[in-house]
Amino acid sequence: MHYNVKEVEAKWQKRWQQHPMVTKPTGSGKKYYCLDMFPYPSGSGLHVGHWRGYVLSDVYARIKLLEGYNVLHPMGWDAFGLPAENDAIKKGIHPQISTAANIAFFKKQLIEVAAIYDWSKEINTTDPEYYKWTQWIFLQMYKAGLAYEAVAPINWCPSCLTGLANEEVVQGNCERCGTQVLERNVRQWILRITQYAEKLLEGLDRLDWPEKVKRMQRNWIGKSEGLVFSAPVKDSDIIIQTFSHHFESFAADTFITIAPDHPLLSQLLDEVHNKNEIMQFCDDLIQKRAQKKYDTNANEVEGIFTGRFAIDPVSGREMPIWVASFVIAAYGTGIVRCSAHDERDFAFAKKYNIPLKVVLVPEDPTKRALVENFDLCYTDMEQGILLEPTPFAGKKASSVRQEIIQYCQEKGYAVAQTQYKLRDWIFSRQRYWGEPIPLIHCQRCGVVPVPEDQLPVELPHVQSYQPTGTGESPLAGIESWVNTTCPTCGGPARRETNTMPQWAGSCWYFLRYPNPHLKDKPFDAADMQYWLPVDLYVGGIEHAILHLLYARFYTKVLFDLGYLPFDEPFKQLFNQGMVCRYSEKSGLVEKMSKSKGNVVNPDDIVKSYGSDALRMYILFMGPPELDCEWQDAGLDGVKRFLNRFWDYMVKEGTILPEGQQEIEKVTRRTHALIQELQERLDNFKTNTVISSFMQWLNDATEHSMQLSRTSAEMVLVALSVVAPHIASELLEALLEKQLLSCTWPKFDPALLKSYEAKVTIQVNGKMRAIITLPIGTLQDEVEKHARQEIAKWLVGHEVVKIIFVQDKLLNFVIK
Ligand SMILES: [Zn+2]
Ligand SMILES: [Zn+2]
């Protein structure tokens, strides 16, 4: 029986398509919801990076299925977005048509991954039946006061006359024409995600997610405790407020800076003789800033004195108020107390000869002298020692943070306040290929939601996708669509022409999968109770912040509105690393991309090596959470293994006839394999799972192990989660079994106890360690463990010889 990869894989793929995997209905026993981050169906198709995530999640979905769980492992399409729209502009192909073609291509490619997707659950975010509910959720948010209209800046290309998404801005320039991008204010819809800052932080503590991702989310939300100081402006009744996060050195503050576009500025400059000159200077600053002309890394600062002074509540002294290029009106209060203990403040004061004061010093006396002489800016709030105010003199700044908050409040200098870096979410795009925002503008009634029974607001077919040049979406140009009647008063009204951002559809798709064809609601309560939250979510680290934050935000809102019985959508998260490859163009090992010419097309690999080989290699190439390098040689190794495995299993005598026992050593070896696999799988060490199989096969061939039908089934079922085609074929051909009638193998711990050997590790005959390993472990494996265990005895020595007695001893002879 020869291993014909093509024939075997074609046979099983056909069979799986004829008898597709179908999830059992809600409530059928214990469940497992295993989810991939759904792809954007781009024109270039699947790449091996997609495979890395999909194969990984499929391994776990398959194990749970074999363990008897009711498994939901769906797939769908995050299909709104810019590339389809840009294609439409360039080639005149309607995005719906190009998207449908891309999806068909992806689906064909996905068959080769051989994942157990339930295609009856497929979702497409651009399907009106789906985005009807994306719009419905927006309306619930709007009605709950979580969506508001405001003028906010967008990236604007003055040459293409269009708004650009952030990803279309490359180093400050328009991706298409290279013109420098400006900021332009446009009417937008904004979601109040900041209202959920605290809940988004708190929820992270309850999740089984990589620490790195939790840290990234925490930093993005950016909670900080600070003090708000109030200072009256001399000769006026204006009181200015400043927020300080690094308030430990507050006694050093000697001047105040205000943003050039601060709304208070004009009032502050009343009665200042050169007001016009200052306002002109500010306009120039704003222009320069919008064109991103400042090198913030080099502490490039610029400003102008307002002619006004504030009275410092701390010292009672006058503090000059300056306009400064680096102060942002929207951050904090837009006004900042400045001191010698901030790099930019320091640079600014030096440039304009503003007096400084030192209250924080390093322990090192040489460095301290430099700081006290204003030759060095010292900012270390962790290690620095305070000189003032008196109660804290001589203490480490970081050790008295809480006491300083107390002190400043008691003295009446300031009040404590918590701030977040998180901004509200600009939720509109001036684009065609997105979900229309379901609102209507009526001159008499104002903004009116589209009645729910009129959803979806479908995207109209258009002839031209060109942006209008006014900053409005192309929808604004379709009079027949824009003009409508007001649902409240029946008068003439206009539809909202902004569309939702590409994130909208992916914020809730995991709620739709259990029943994607539900007509009268977005999801069913019983489904939510049973299937959600998602048990395992697998996807790339590039979504660590925005997608996951937005999806968590949506879930929390729907929970608060009473639609969901849980407030965190993804229990466990796994981020697979990227697949990199040597690029001849750059001479570096880099992330695969077309422009670098280092892309591997999975279809080609499948053609020459087969799906099983690619699945195994993708798992084998490195720890799944790390970026790793694609090497063709590794693929050859896997292919060799599969050939050897096949040859061994089909060899006359390998599998004993029904009813005939195998020798105990063989049983133990098989259980040891299962134990090792389980441990490695539980810890997401899928790369080492393949080595377990290789090791087992080495032992099996070396000792010509004869397997009982039970042992053979255990090995084949275990292998099926990584190489389903070959495993299914051998199960059927050799054991007359179908994979789905088998169960995931369990090892017997009692059997393994008597199976362990204590191997003495020596160096030049001296005992250095005893390690416990399965009986019959071969020299290579023992040596690997031993070298780790006694590494310090080998450092700086050359191993000239190794003496090995199986199950007893390994002696390194060194010189
Ligand atoms: Zn442009
Ligand atoms: Zn009206």
List the domain count as a whole number: 4
CATH 4th-level superfamily of the largest domain: HUPs
Shape: globular
How many H/I helices? Answer: 26
Give a quick account of the main beta sheet: strands, pairing sense, barrel closure: 4 strands, parallel
**CATH class category label of the largest domain:** Alpha Beta
Mean pLDDT: 92
Named CATH topology of the largest domain: Rossmann fold
* Lateral arrangement of strands in the main beta sheet: 2-1-24-25
Spatial gap, N to C terminus: 51 Å
| Gyration radius, in Å | 33 Å
Overview of the molecule:
- This protein has 4 domains: 26-217 and 424-576, Rossmann fold (3-Layer(aba) Sandwich), CATH 3.40.50.620; 224-419, Isoleucyl-tRNA Synthetase, domain 2; 594-745, Isoleucyl-tRNA Synthetase, Domain 1 (Orthogonal Bundle), CATH 1.10.730.10; 756-814, Ubiquitin-like (UB roll) (Roll), CATH 3.10.20.
- The model has no long low-confidence stretch (mean pLDDT 92).
- The strands form 10 sheets. Strands 2-1-24-25 form a 4-stranded parallel β-sheet, covered by helices on one side.
- Helix content is 36%, strand content 20%.
- With 815 residues, the chain is α+β, with helices and mostly antiparallel strands.
- Helix 1 packs across helix 23 (724-735) and helix 17 packs across helix 18 (611-620).
- It has 26 helices and 32 strands.
- The structure holds zinc ion (ZN) (2 copies).
- Residues 442, 444-445, 486, 488-489, 491, 493 line the site of one zinc ion.
- The site of one zinc ion has 8 residues, from loops.
